[in-house]
Design a protein that fits this description.
It contains two helices and 34 strands. The protein is an all-beta fold and about 625 residues long.
Length: about 625
C-alpha cells in the first residue's frame, strides 16, 4: 500500500496532467492557458495560442481556427517588414519588424514602402498611394505614420512641387491652389530694352488653320520704332522661344514711332473669314508731330511674312499734333450691323480732353485715312479727361444684336478729381459724332484719383445670361490692402442696358491685395479657361509682390451662374506671379486658345523681364484645362 500514497504525491505535484477527459489518453495544459491539447489547443507550449485567442502580430495562428496567417502578418515583399503592429510579446524568432510597412507589395528604395525608403519624408514610413515619394498626410491605416503629402491621390501634389499649370490643385501643399510662378512657357524679347509684352492680344484665327493666334507688342524695339510679333497657334500649342522666331514681325516705320504700344484683334473687317489685327504707334508723326497712327494687317492663309508697317493694309493717322492716336486700339464688333466688324482707336491728346474714333469695316477692308474722316468721333467731356486712354469691344451689353463700344477717361472729374470715368456707346445702324457726355452710359469713379477707365474690356458673358458684361480698372484706387492697391470692377449686362451710375454700384468689386499693387492696371476677358460654359476674367497687378520686389501678378477669376463672388483678389481662383523681381508681370493680359483644345489659355505680359537681356521683356502663356 505504500506505493499509492507516493503516486498521489506525484500526481498532485504536476498541474499539467488532468487525467483522461476524453478517454483518449492523458490530457495536458502545458502553457496554462486553460485549454487542453486534446481540446483544440494547437500549440500547448504557447499561452497566446488556443481556440478563440485574439490575433496578435507575432507570425502565429493564435486562434487555432484560421488556416493561414492574416495578410498583415505576412512579409509579402520580403523586405523584412510587415504591416501589423507587433504586440509586447514580439515577433516569434524576431526576424521581422512589424507595424511600419505601409506597402507590403513593393520593397524598392524610393517608393516609400518601408522606413527609410522615402527620404523626402524622413525615416518614417508613410503610405504613398500616388508614387510621388511623399507619404499621405491622412492615411487610412492607423498603423501608418502620417506623412506630408496633402493629396495622396495625385502624384503631382507634394511638398515643394512646382505650381506650373492651371489644375485647381495645391501642387506644393502650401495651402493655396494654383499659386503659380510663371515661366513654364514664355516668349522672350529679342534684345535688351525691347519691352516685349508691353501689349498683348489674342486675335482669333489669323491664318485660317483653326487655331487662335497671338500678337505681342514691343514698343521700344528697333531704336524705339517699335514692333509687333505674330505668333501662330498650333495643335501642340505655343512653345517657349525668342520672338526672333515668331512667324512675322511688323516693324515701326521710323525711330520713336513706338509701334506696338497697343495691339489688338480687329475682328474680321472685310468679312473674308480671316481675323485681322491692329497695331498702334502713338509716336508716329508723318502727318503731324506725334499725331500717332494705327495700322491694320489683314489675315490670310499666307500669313507669316514680316513687313515694315509702311506696307500695312491700312494706316489711320491722327488728326493733329500731339494727339497720340493709337495709344489704344481695339476691335469694336459689328457696331452698325452690316456684317463687317469695325474698329475703335483712342487718341488721348485730341481736342484737349481726348477722343475715340470709330472706323467701319467694309468688303474691301479699311482704306488709308486721317481720323478726321472716321465715321464717328467721341470727344472727351472736359480738358485733361484723357478720353481714349483705353478703348474696347464691349460685346453686346443689351442683347440687341449690335456691338457696343467702351471708352475710358481716367482724368474725368465727375466723381472727384481724376476719379475717372468709363463710357458705353451702344451700337446703332448709323453711328454719329458725339461728346461723351451724350454716351448711353457713364460709369463714374468712386473717389478722388482712382483713375477709373485707365483700363477696360469686354468681359464676355460671365454669368451665362446671354448679355455681354464689362470690366473696368481703377489702378490708383485705395482699398483694404492700402493706398493704390487698385480695383477691378465687373458690371453685368442686361436687356435694359447698363444705367448711368457710380462704379460703386458694380456687381463685383475686386480690390488689390496690398498697397501699391495697382490691380486693374490691365484686365481682359479670359474666355472660358476651364470649359464650364462661363467666361472668366484676368486682372493684372504689375507692381504686386510675390516673394520678390515687383515681379507682378495676374489673377484668374472664374465665371459662374452667380457671376463673380470674390471681393479681394487674394480670393482669386489662380494667382500667377512673375518669376523675378522688377518684371512687372501683368502689365498686359489677354487670352487665346492657342492649341485648339477648347480651353482658353492665359497671356501675361512682363515687359521688363530679362531672360534674354535686360528689359527685353516676355509674354507668359498658361494653358487652360478642365478643373
Amino acid at each position: 500500500m505504500s506505493r499509492f500514497p507516493a503516486l498521489l504525491v506525484i500526481l498532485t505535484g504536476c498541474p499539467y496532467i488532468f487525467g483522461d477527459t476524453d478517454l483518449g489518453g492523458v490530457d495536458h495544459d502545458n502553457d496554462l492557458d486553460g485549454y487542453l491539447d486534446n481540446e483544440g489547443d494547437c500549440d500547448d507550449s504557447d499561452a497566446t495560442v488556443h481556440p478563440g485567442a485574439p490575433e496578435l502580430c507575432d507570425g502565429l495562428l493564435n486562434d487555432c481556427d484560421t488556416p493561414t496567417l492574416p495578410a498583415d502578418e505576412v512579409d509579402d515583399d520580403g523586405d523584412g517588414y510587415v504591416e501589423c503592429t507587433i504586440d509586447a510579446r514580439g515577433w516569434q524568432g524576431f526576424t521581422v519588424i512589424g507595424g511600419e510597412d505601409c506597402d507590403d507589395i513593393a520593397d524598392a528604395i524610393g517608393e516609400g514602402t518601408f522606413p527609410g525608403a522615402a527620404p523626402k519624408d524622413g525615416l518614417e514610413c508613410m503610405k504613398d498611394v500616388d508614387n510621388d515619394d511623399y507619404g499621405d498626410a491622412h492615411p487610412m491605416r492607423t498603423e501608418v505614420a502620417t506623412g506630408t503629402d496633402c493629396d495622396d491621390s495625385a502624384n503631382i501634389v507634394y511638398p515643394m512641387s512646382q505650381e506650373q499649370n492651371l489644375d485647381g490643385l495645391d501642387n506644393d501643399c502650401d495651402g493655396e491652389a494654383d499659386h503659380i510662378i510663371l515661366g513654364s512657357t514664355m516668349l522672350t524679347g529679342e534684345v535688351a530694352g525691347d519691352n516685349a509684352g508691353c501689349s498683348i492680344s489674342g486675335i482669333g484665327d489669323f491664318n485660317g488653320d483653326g487655331f487662335d493666334d497671338v500678337v505681342v507688342g514691343a514698343s521700344q524695339a528697333i531704336s524705339k520704332a517699335g514692333a509687333a510679333y505674330l505668333v501662330l497657334g498650333n495643335s501642340a500649342g505655343v512653345s517657349s522661344a525668342s520672338l526672333w522666331s515668331a512667324q512675322a514681325r511688323f516693324s515701326g516705320e521710323t525711330a520713336y514711332d513706338r509701334a506696338g504700344t497697343s495691339v489688338s484683334a480687329a475682328g474680321d473687317v472685310n468679312s473674308d473669314g480671316y481675323q485681322d489685327l491692329l497695331i498702334g504707334a502713338p509716336g508716329e508723326g508723318s502727318a503731324e508731330h506725334l499725331a500717332g497712327a494705327t495700322y491694320l494687317i489683314l489675315g490670310s492663309s499666307s500669313a507669316g511674312s514680316s513687313m515694315d508697317l509702311a506696307n500695312a493694309n491700312a494706316k489711320l493717322t491722327g488728326e493733329g499734333d500731339y494727339h497720340s492716336s493709337g495709344v489704344s486700339v481695339s476691335a469694336a464688333g459689328d457696331v452698325d450691323g452690316d456684317g463687317f466688324d469695325d474698329v475703335v482707336v483712342g487718341a488721348t491728346g485730341a481736342n484737349d480732353g481726348g477722343a475715340a474714333y470709330l472706323v467701319l469695316g467694309t468688303k474691301t477692308g479699311l482704306a488709308d485715312m486721317n481720323l478726321k474722316d472716321a465715321q464717328a468721333r467721341f470727344l472727351g467731356e472736359d480738358e485733361f479727361d484723357n478720353a481714349g486712354a483705353a478703348v474696347a469691344d464691349g460685346g453686346d451689353v443689351n442683347g440687341d444684336g449690335y456691338g457696343d463700344i467702351l471708352v475710358g477717361a481716367p482724368g474725368n472729374n465727375a466723381g472727384g478729381s481724376s476719379a475717372g470715368a468709363a463710357y458705353i456707346i451702344l451700337g446703332f445702324p448709323a453711328p454719329k459724332n458725339l461728346n461723351l457726355i451724350q454716351a448711353d452710359t457713364k460709369l463714374k469713379g468712386e473717389v478722388y484719383h482712382d483713375q477709373l477707365g485707365f483700363s477696360l474690356s469686354g468681359a464676355g458673358d460671365v454669368n451665362g445670361d446671354g448679355y455681354g458684361d464689362i470690366l473696368v480698372g481703377a489702378p490708383y484706387a485705395d482699398g483694404p490692402g492700402g493706398i493704390w492697391s487698385g480695383t477691378a470692377y465687373l458690371v453685368l449686362g442686361a436687356a435694359s442696358g447698363i444705367p448711368n451710375m457710380s462704379i460703386a454700384g458694380a456687381e463685383a468689386k475686386m480690390t488689390g491685395e496690398t498697397a501699391s499693387d495697382h490691380a486693374g492696371d490691365s484686365l481682359a476677358s479670359a474666355g472660358d479657361v476651364n470649359g464650364d460654359g462661363f467666361d472668366d476674367l484676368v486682372v493684372g497687378a504689375p507692381f504686386a509682390e510675390a516673394g520678390a520686389y515687383n515681379p507682378g501678378v495676374a489673377y484668374l477669376i472664374l465665371g459662374s451662374q452667380l457671376g463673380v463672388v470674390i471681393s479681394n483678389l487674394a480670393e482669386a481662383d489662380a494667382r500667377l506671379a512673375g518669376a523675378s523681381a522688377l518684371e512687372y508681370a501683368g502689365g498686359s493680359v489677354g487670352s487665346a486658345d492657342t492649341n485648339g483644345d477648347g480651353y482658353h489659355d492665359l497671356l501675361i505680359g512682363a515687359d521688363d523681364e530679362s531672360t534674354t537681356a535686360s528689359d527685353a521683356g516676355a509674354v507668359y502663356i498658361v494653358i487652360g484645362s478642365s478643373f
